[in-house]
Structure formats: C-alpha cells, structure tokens
C-alpha cells in the first residue's frame, strides 16, 4: 500500500527558477515528514523535515510546506541550481514510530 | 565525522550462495535500519533495531533473510540461499531515538547486490 505518493516521476526546471516537488500521503497518523535527496550510487541524504504542528519550515534555499487537511506537502527550492539535480524522496512516519514510509521519488533536473 | 558505512559496495554472486552485507552505524545512534530499494517496490524497510535489539522485522521478505546486531557498532544482513529476485540495492540507516524529538535517519551509500 502506497501511503506516501510522489506522482511526478520527473521535473525539469531552468537554473535560477523555483523547483516545486510534491508529495501526498494517506495515513492521518503521520506526524513527521522528511525530504531526502539522492545522487546516483549514493545513499539518500537528509535535506529538511517538518513536524505536523507546523505548516512551514525553511532552511536556506529549501522550504517545506505542509497542508494537513489536504494531506499534502511540497518542497520548494529557490533559486534552483544545477547541483540540485538529483532524485528527491518524500518520507513520513507516525509519532514515536520508526517505520518510515517513502515515496517513489521525483527526479529533478536543473538546466544551466 | 563518519557517516553510516556499508560494505561491500557491490556484490555479485551466483544463485544459492550465502550473501552477507555489513553496516557500521553512526556512533551514538541507537536505532539501525535495513532497507531494500528496487524499481518495482521503491525503498522498503526490512527490519530495524533499537539498542541492538530487533524491534520490527515484518518487512523481511522470507526466512532466507536474517539480520543481527551483535553490538552497537555493527550489523549484518544475511541472505541464505540467495536468489536472482534478491538483486537490489540494500541500504543501512541509523538515527537517534524518537525520545529525543524527531530525528532523521542517516543512510549509508548502499550495497548493490546482483544475484546471477
């Protein structure tokens, strides 16, 4: 069962523009959400997270937005850079629960 | 600052052979996770440990798979006998406990396993 869904397998944006990656979830018990970035032949690298008590968390060029009523979160990267080109995974887990569920990933390509 | 270390990075072996994957978590982390990534199923949790004790192994596909954590700095995932459908990238991750607030998992670079 796909409890975390990333419906866009790929996204291409121009350098300097905004990248918006989307993620939907079905389990209302999830209360901690994360984004990971993955380069080829490397493991996923933690990027940014958000707790369900917040609706926004910002870290430099990266901002994660959470809409609990819609069970939707998004990652905004602005401005996008070619080095941001990677696969981005959305992940979620419940309170005091270490069983983290991952989306299928979105491949972001930032063109110079 | 060493991250999660996995070995080997690549493993190619013949069907029926025993395969052992190794993981060294980040020092001080009390949770360790084993994941498998395939094209069909994406990234799926196989098993995780807390303070060296297996907590949830419901993701382990079948009895051919076993995992151990003899101490806080070492874990193994073993497949015996291996089958071609076990071919995948296996990731190990570690984290601090949720008792210290929300903590992300930190991943190793994975072992790419090919069973011929």
Q: Which SSEs are present, and which pair or pack?
A:
The complex is a heterodimer of chains A (112) and B (116).
Chain A: E1 4-5, E2 10-14, E3 19-25, E4 30-38, E5 45-51, E6 56-59, E7 62-67, E8 72-77, E9 86-94, E10 101-102, E11 106-111
Parallel strand pairs in A: 2-11
Antiparallel strand pairs in A: 1-3, 3-8, 4-5, 4-9, 6-7, 7-8, 9-10, 9-11
Chain B: E1 5-7, E2 10-13, E3 19-24, E4 31-38, E5 42-50, E6 53-56, E7 65-71, E8 74-79, E9 88-95, E10 106-107, E11 111-115
Description:
The complex is a heterodimer of chains A (112) and B (116). Helix content of chain A is 0%, strand content 56%. Chain A is mainly beta. In chain A, strands 2, 4, 5, 9, 10 and 11 form a 6-stranded mixed β-sheet that branches. In chain A, strands 1-3-8-7-6 form a 5-stranded antiparallel β-sheet, with no helix packed on it. The N and C termini of chain A lie far apart (38 Å). In chain B, strands 2, 4, 5, 6, 9, 10 and 11 form a 7-stranded mixed β-sheet that branches. In chain B, a hairpin with a 2-residue loop joins strand 7 (65-71) and strand 8. Chain B has strands at residues 5-7, 10-13, 19-24, 31-38, 42-50, 53-56, 65-71, 74-79, 88-95, 106-107, 111-115. Chain B contains no helices and 11 strands. The model of chain B has no long low-confidence stretch (mean pLDDT 93).
Shape of chain A: globular
Please give the count of helices of chain B: 0
Tally the helices of chain A. 0
Order of helices and strands of chain B: EEEEEEEEEEE
Task: Outline the biggest β-sheet of chain A.
Answer: 6 strands, mixed
Going by helix content, strand content and strand pairing, the class of chain A is mainly beta
Uncertain residue segments of chain B:
none
Structural class per helix/strand content of chain B? mainly beta
Report the mean per-residue pLDDT of chain B as an integer. 93
**Extended strand count of chain B:** 11
Beta-strand content of chain B: over 45%
What's the SSE pattern of chain A? EEEEEEEEEEE
Mean pLDDT score of chain A, rounded?
Answer: 94
Measure the end-to-end span of chain B: 36 Å
Report the β-strand fraction of chain A as a percent range.
over 45%
Low-confidence stretches of chain A: none
> How would you classify the quaternary structure?
heterodimer
Task: Specify the helix fraction band of chain B.
Answer: under 10%
């Amino acid at each position: 069962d796909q409890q975390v869904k990333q419906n866009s397998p790929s996204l291409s944006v121009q350098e300097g523009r905004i990248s918006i990656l989307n993620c939907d979830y079905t389990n209302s018990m999830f209360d901690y959400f994360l984004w990971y970035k993955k380069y080829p032949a490397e493991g996923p690298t933690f990027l940014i997270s958000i707790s369900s008590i917040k609706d926004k968390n910002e870290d430099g060029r990266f901002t994660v937005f959470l809409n609990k009523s819609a069970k939707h979160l998004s990652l905004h990267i602005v401005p996008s850079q070619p080095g941001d080109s990677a696969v981005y995974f959305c992940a979620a887990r419940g309170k005091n629960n270490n069983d983290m569920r991952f989306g299928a990933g979105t491949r972001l390509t930032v063109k110079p | 600052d060493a991250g999660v270390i996995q070995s080997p990075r690549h493993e190619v072996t013949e069907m029926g052979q025993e395969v052992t994957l190794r993981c060294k978590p980040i020092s001080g982390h009390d949770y360790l996770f084993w994941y498998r990534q395939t094209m069909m199923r994406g990234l799926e949790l196989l098993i995780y440990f807390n303070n060296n004790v297996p907590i949830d192994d419901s993701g382990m596909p079948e009895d051919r798979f076993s995992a151990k954590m003899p101490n806080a700095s070492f874990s193994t995932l073993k497949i015996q006998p291996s089958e071609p459908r076990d071919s995948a990238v296996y990731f190990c991750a570690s984290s601090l406990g949720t008792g210290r607030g929300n903590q992300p998992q930190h991943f190793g670079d994975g072992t790419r396993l090919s069973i011929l």
